[in-house]
Amino acid sequence: MASSSPSRARTLALAIVLFLVASASARPSQQDEPVTMVRFRRWMEQHGRSYPTVDEELRRFEVYRRNVERIEATNRAGGLGYTLGENQFTDLTSERLSRR
């Protein structure tokens, strides 16, 4: 178990670097308020989330990132009479959420 931890850390570090490189090459409109792995990790801590594998964590990060972008775009558009926000379900796809 201890030997897989350095491997997991290296894989996660590589994924973060790849994400940062991809973010740097994103269109400027996508860089206004980037959803970062740091923000996702804070959300994970706040909601007691952990994932069994690095691959699953990266999949959930991507879902979280897309959901936060949708939340922020909806709030910027305004006119709803309410504001959307993150919650304990922000790492779920709409399909998975509807099955709950």
Automatic annotation (TrEMBL):
Domain of life: Eukaryota
Pfam families: Inhibitor_I29 (PF08246)
Name of this protein: Fruit bromelain
Species this chain originates from: Aegilops tauschii (Tausch's goatgrass)
Domain Cathepsin propeptide inhibitor per the UniProt entry, residue ranges: 40-97
